[in-house]
Write a structure and sequence with these properties.
By secondary structure, the protein is an alpha/beta fold. The protein has twelve helices and twelve strands. The structure holds manganese (II) ion. The site of manganese (II) ion has 6 residues, from loops.
């Protein structure tokens, strides 16, 4: 897609850039990069999201890179005719709130589950949404400020787990482009003092509760825990030498939240999450990383020995794939 077409489409309208709910570093960096790109071409925009930003590392991006984002409570004046550009997500996904404005554009790197007629659509299966935005600057030779280059570099690093997860040569190419223009101190700053005491408690609970079924590692966090942290703990369980698939879940007031990881080609984490939760909840995502949820009102319906039943569902699906 030609990003200049997007700029032309937006002129004369009020523009919102919306990330998925509970935005992660790639979502924030993509939105910030796009906002700067549009501004360089004379289009003002506001970054917005629903949900909470629970990770200290994500919040820290605001001060380190100088990013201004608005929660849904701060954009209550959005109107139907306002334009929304969805980044790092797609309309109709379960992880994004349908705001009143008109979703006319989508820039994302996830597979499409439900088609939507955007006027501008740039969905490429690459390692990070930040890579696509970085490419906009590269393609069009648009001036890329140092703080924006640094944020994009950080977004690419985080979403690809330093090029070890879902990364393509494209991600490395555009990374090299932004890294040349970045301030290494800003990027390094993002890696310091980002662990909170609550993170440590969740790690502790997961370590206490971890158990293995062959190469499959399960861990339950028996208390409220933000999405981003469950995901990090799932990565942590996967990092065990004997684990190739990890399933970590937290019991929250609103329901049970899952994070699934796979490092082997036979097991598609997205498919496993979807099939294992079929009928009691919802799940999906990438081959290597996925999420899922059982809403609170469905949790009671699972009945006694809930953990066993949940595990059984995952084991049955994974074993049917031949593991
Ligand atoms: Mn992403």
């Amino acid at each position: 897609m030609n990003p200049i077409k997007l700029v032309e489409l937006l002129r004369g309208h009020r523009i919102f850039i919306q990330t998925h709910n509970f935005p992660d570093p790639d979502a924030i960096a993509s939105a910030f990069g796009l906002q700067c790109f549009l501004e360089k071409h004379g289009v003002e925009s506001t970054i917005c999201y629903d949900g909470k930003i629970d990770k200290l590392s994500t919040k820290k991006m605001f001060s380190v890179f100088g990013i201004d984002v608005r929660s849904k409570y701060e954009i209550s004046d959005m109107k139907e005719e306002d334009y929304i550009i969805v980044v790092d997500a797609q309309k109709y996904n379960s992880n994004i709130t349908d705001f009143i404005g008109d979703e006319i554009a989508c820039i994302d790197h996830h597979p499409t589950f439900k088609e939507c007629d955007y006027q501008y659509k740039d969905v490429r299966i690459v390692g990070a949404c930040s890579s696509i935005i970085a490419d906009y600057f590269r393609q069009t030779r648009t001036e890329l400020p140092m703080n924006v280059a640094s944020a994009l570099a950080y977004g690419i690093k985080m979403d690809t787990a330093d090029f070890t997860r879902g990364a393509f040569p494209f991600d490395a190419e555009v990374f090299s482009y932004v890294f040349e223009r970045a301030d290494i101190h800003l990027i390094n700053d993002m890696y310091m003092n980002v662990m909170e005491m609550t993170d440590l408690k969740a790690y502790g609970a997961a370590i206490d509760n971890i158990h293995l079924k062959g190469e499959i590692g399960f861990a339950k966090i028996p208390f409220d825990c933000p999405d981003a942290l469950i995901a990090i703990i799932s990565d942590f369980v996967l990092s065990l030498d004997i684990v190739t698939v990890s399933i970590v879940y937290a019991e929250r007031v609103d329901g049970i939240k899952f994070s699934v990881r796979s490092e082997i080609p036979e097991v598609d984490a997205g498919v496993v999450a979807k099939e294992a939760l079929k009928g009691i909840g919802d799940g999906g995502g990438h081959r290597d990383m996925a999420g899922g949820f059982i809403p609170g009102d469905r949790v009671l319906g699972i009945g006694p020995q809930r953990d066993k039943k949940i595990e059984r569902r995952f084991l049955d699906v994974i074993r049917s794939k031949g593991l």
